[in-house]
Specification:
Elements: H1 17-41, H2 45-72, H3 82-97
Helix pairs in contact: 1-2
Length: 99
């Protein structure tokens, strides 16, 4: 997905490019969540493959949107504390052992 060079400016509806990019990011997150649920519940292997393909595409688009917003300074998450990273790593490791 090629993202245009975007500057913050107001459109006719009063939305800035930042506002529109945030909506686009939020919609991708919602779609990704729904596709993941669909993949989990799909009973047909072919349907599951199609959903997973769409999920992969949307994940790539979401990353491109996030990267652009981050470069523009529109999306700057706080850095995780080392103890929080370790806690999540331990949780994921424990979950993987039980699968």
């Amino acid at each position: 997905m090629n993202m245009p060079n975007i500057n913050v400016r107001r459109g006719d509806a009063g939305f800035t490019d930042r506002d529109l990019m945030q909506v686009l990011l939020d919609e991708h997150k919602l779609c990704i969540s729904n596709l993941a649920k669909g993949a989990i519940e799909a009973s047909s292997p072919e349907l599951r493959r199609q959903i997973m393909s769409s999920l992969d595409t949307d994940l790539k688009h979401q990353k491109e949107i996030w990267d652009l917003m981050n470069r523009k300074g529109w999306y700057q998450p706080a850095m995780a504390q080392p103890q929080d990273v370790a806690r999540v790593q331990n949780f994921v490791s424990t979950m993987q052992q039980h699968v």
